[in-house]
Design goal:
Two copies of one chain form a homodimer.
Chain A: H1 3-10, H2 14-22, H3 29-42, H4 48-55, E1 60-65, H5 75-88, E2 92-97, H6 102-114, E3 119-123, H7 129-136, E4 142-145, E5 156-159, H8 161-174, E6 180-184, H9 190-207, E7 216-218, H10 223-234, E8 243-246, H11 249-261, E9 271-276, E10 289-293, H12 295-310, E11 319-322, E12 324-327
Parallel strand pairs in A: 1-2, 1-3, 3-4, 4-5, 5-11, 6-7, 6-8, 8-9, 9-10
Antiparallel strand pairs in A: 10-12
The structure holds a DNA duplex (16 and 16 nucleotides).
Chain lengths: ~325, ~325
DNA sequence: TTGTAGGCGTTATCAT
DNA sequence: ATGATAACGCCTACAA
């Protein structure tokens, strides 16, 4: 069933059918009635492909993410906000998850281009020369979320990972801790990996504390890796830390589980501070002290930024940084 | 830039360009070289819309979900598996989240039809007459995930919610508990809501135990609702339960948090069993005893089912039920 | 108010 | 091996 057949059955031209479908011009009540009757009878649905081909816009936004999964990141929260906003503006969403495989990432960039999505929300993680080459003259508007790529001028919405981690560490120091361990994210992730670690380290520097070598270790975002990292850290031949800064709440929970199994009480025996404030954090035992980043807000900001770019509005603020907040709960104790 | 312009620059016909792009017929090395040169120089990308319009398939699968968000359900896990499988088969994904608004659900069904997606994976929640009307002669293959709709013959992949909840309750009973509370999901959800509750209730019936009235209460999937439900349940004028069956792990965590705040130790003072086995469950304090449903497997099964339908294979098993497993950890104690 | 016809960018068919 | 040309289904001048 297509517009031509509808026209034939309603005994009008296809233009008239198009007019009643899109309400784009006056149609006589008589013709309109006949057309609508056929429309209903045949359950006709216009073919978006044809329409979009001719209008040169697809009303579709591509979301490109490179997470292991929805569970180990908190990307889901951002996507909730994004889908809501974009939907209300008439956009649909095409989803691509590269699972950290660069090749797939480039592949999606290609597919999005061939599918002619109107814009892209790009939850990137790492960058290479190939990225630069591709993104440098990519024809579709992109807004990055969670990461920035300094070598190219692309609008972005990021978190203040550096100051967040620094604030967390300073808070721990202020509670009297001196031996403070750090469980971080992989360094290919320039935001959660590099910046948070830097924030942690700089907090010591500025506090004039000499945090000995050997207190840093790396996880991979998962709960399990937090558990393992804590285990590994505690098997090292160093004087035991009295507090742990952990780069994500998920890993912090893995960490606490390990400590608990070792008979250590958090926060009485050892303090732990996380990062993210995911939905479980407030309900964990103990409730997690953490740095809250507003993933939802990031999604909103990114959507709106992309939207105004698509509307060709003169956007002045193409680089936005979402704030953070220290949430004091019950996994940190002063000594 | 389009195929016509490429043809002009390479001094060949558009047919030839099409041939080298799709490798669909022999092309002289000479012509091929010229075309490829232009392809590279112009960074030409074929327009999928045009191709799909003419081929009558979009290589796109629509995923329709009706969750509040990615966090309160464990739908993310299924989607991970789905995206992997579909991607490897050359399909792309279009995502629609209705947020439990029926109208938006129908809207997405319409959009998916207009966008001509090849198939749909439908994470439904509730059903109405309108659903029946729309789905009855919907022209695109659908596979339902997590729910079935008995009034219409649609292939589905579901969990064994009934037996899972029954097994959980039986296990609790076997541990010597008699006063067992239940924190459930909303009943518009026929799977997690209705079936799990039924499993809980039938366990008593068959065990010949008279579980008094007043032990059931309803949450809404969120952690917070689990907390509140526990609070409400314990404020009732009934002899306190010694165990709680909670319909989702998220709610179970909310529940345990409340109990902990009341100075009750889980499992020493009261036992709690959950449902789902989400990623945090094993790392919660205490580690959660729960019914594991394999969301990933459900995603795999659903994808494969849809795939074979699309391939017009004669599929015999259009109704599949994914198994479950009782995971004994440390939130239940025998008395 | 209505209809005709060209074009959107491909692929597919049919000659050559 | 190559090229014309007719679809695919729609929108949009332009003409009537």
């Amino acid at each position: 069933m297509n517009i031509k057949e509808v026209a034939r059955r309603a005994n009008v031209s296809i233009s008239t059918v198009s007019r009643v479908i899109n309400n784009t011009a006056k149609v006589s009540p008589d013709a309109r009635a006949r057309v609508e009757k056929v429309l209903k009878e045949t359950k006709y649905r216009p073919n978006s492909l044809a329409r979009e081909l001719q209008q040169k816009r697809t009303n579709t936004i591509g979301i490109l993410m490179s997470a292991y999964d929805f569970d180990s990141s908190s990307i889901g929260k951002s996507i909730n906000a994004i889908t809501d906003i974009l939907k209300s503006e008439g956009y649909n969403i095409m989803l691509g998850n590269s699972r950290f495989h660069e090749d797939e990432e480039f592949e999606f960039l290609r597919v999005f281009q061939e599918k002619r999505v109107d814009g892209i929300l790009y939850f990137a993680s790492s960058f290479s020369d190939k990225h630069k080459e591709i993104l440098e003259d990519y024809p579709i508007p992109i807004v990055m979320v969670g990461q920035k790529y300094d070598e190219i001028d692309i609008p972005y919405v990021i978190y203040d990972d550096y100051n967040g981690a620094k604030t967390a560490t300073e808070y721990i120091i202020k509670q009297g801790h001196q031996k403070i361990g750090y469980i971080g994210c992989p360094l290919y992730d320039t935001a959660a990996g590099v910046m948070r670690k830097k924030g942690y380290e700089d907090a010591f520097r500025e506090a004039g504390i000499n945090n000995d070598i050997g207190y840093e270790i790396e996880g991979d975002f998962t709960l399990e890796s937090g558990y393992k990292a804590a285990k590994e850290l505690f098997s090292r031949n160093i004087s035991k830390p009295s507090a742990l800064v952990v780069a994500t709440d998920f890993m912090a929970m893995g960490t606490i589980r390990y400590l608990t199994e070792q008979g250590l009480n958090v926060p009485n025996d050892i303090s732990v501070i996380g990062f993210d404030d995911i939905n479980v954090s407030a309900y964990y035992n103990p409730p997690l002290t953490t740095i809250r980043t507003d993933k939802e807000d990031a999604g909103i900001q990114a959507s709106n930024l992309l939207l105004s770019i698509l509307r060709k509005e003169s956007v002045t603020k193409t680089h936005v940084t979402v704030g953070y907040e220290l949430i004091k709960r019950n996994s940190v104790k002063s000594i």
